[in-house]
Amino acid sequence: MDDGADLVSTIHSNKSELIPEIKGGTEETTTGVMRLRAMALKEELKYPIIAVNDAHTKYLFDNRYGTGQSTIDGILRATSVLLAGKTFVAAGYGWCGRGLALRARGMGANVVVTETNPIKALEAVMEGFRVMTMSNAAEIGDIFVTTTGNKNVIRKEHFEKMRDGAILANSGHFNVEIDIPELERMTIRRRTIRRNMDEHQLNDGRKLYLLGKGRLINLAAAEGHPSEVMDMSFANQALCIEHLVKEQKYDPGVYRVPKEIDELVARIKLRAIETEIDSLTEEQKQYLANWEAGTT
Fold first, then answer.
1. Which residues contact 188 (CB under 8 A, 6 or more apart)?
2. Which of 45, 50, 79, 197 is the most buried (most CB within 10 A)?
């Protein structure tokens, strides 16, 4: 999920002689940006990185709509399960988790959200989702999907509570969000039911179904995000690289996408989908810029 950050780490660790020639780079994944910021905080990052993932035209669309749709696509291809009426547990309510929860609700599922961030959890509540701990969700869920970027989000104490037939998938990070080694230890019999769907029979007879061996299900069982939403992410990458080369003013560190690039990508996308928007008049611009106007 964070191949860009892996490349940066490899260069810093094994190819440091290349660093003087590198003008900068970009990173478009949430977990990748987290790792690069950790490097910058320790002053170990030796050239500038623009965090494409933090652009509005990336996370509001690629993460939310792209991940939401492609994850559901992967689950359906792997299982052919009916989502309507199922209890669907979305672990994590970042932008990927939000998109997933919205899509699952749109398919008729009863969506439960688990979170560790109190603000995100409150947002999920206000948006009409049930929010609870994974421990409680484990007892009622039919389908569990992780989108947190962390490890062992679903683990032994949760497997022990799950209903017979529960389906487990990951769409947030490497195959570490579900504690697969612990699931393997609890398994007395495993068999592949269909491509990308493994049945794990536990010693009490219950069966849990792991999709795509815990890898990103939208890639393992589907085709990833539609190009109609990835185009904005790639446009940000290209324009930010051009910006870094032309400006050459950045010290080592992690930077946000310049506002003008973010808005340019949005305008280009609007033109591509043949959508026109209004522009502020000079009078309106002056009104917004004048602190005295509209205050009495």
1. 201, 202, 203
2. 50
100 C-beta neighbours (distance < 10 Å), count: 33
Three-state secondary-structure class, residue 67:
helix
pLDDT in tens, 179-211: 999 999 999 999 999 999 999 999 999 999 999
CATH for 64-220?
A: 3.40.50.720
Residue 201 pairs in a beta bridge with 189, 207
Cα 4 to Cα 26: distance, rounded to the nearest angstrom: 8
Reported as a single tens digit per residue, the pLDDT across 31-56 is 899 999 999 999 999 999 999 999 99
CATH of the domain spanning 3-54+243-289: 3.40.50.1480
Domain boundaries, the chain: 3-54+243-289, 64-220
Gap between the Cα atoms of 93 and 122, Å rounded: 10
Give the pair of three-digit tokens for residue 251.
């010290």
User: What is the distance between the alpha carbons of residues 177 and 193, in angstroms, rounded to a whole number?
Assistant: 22
Look up residue 141 and give its amino acid: G
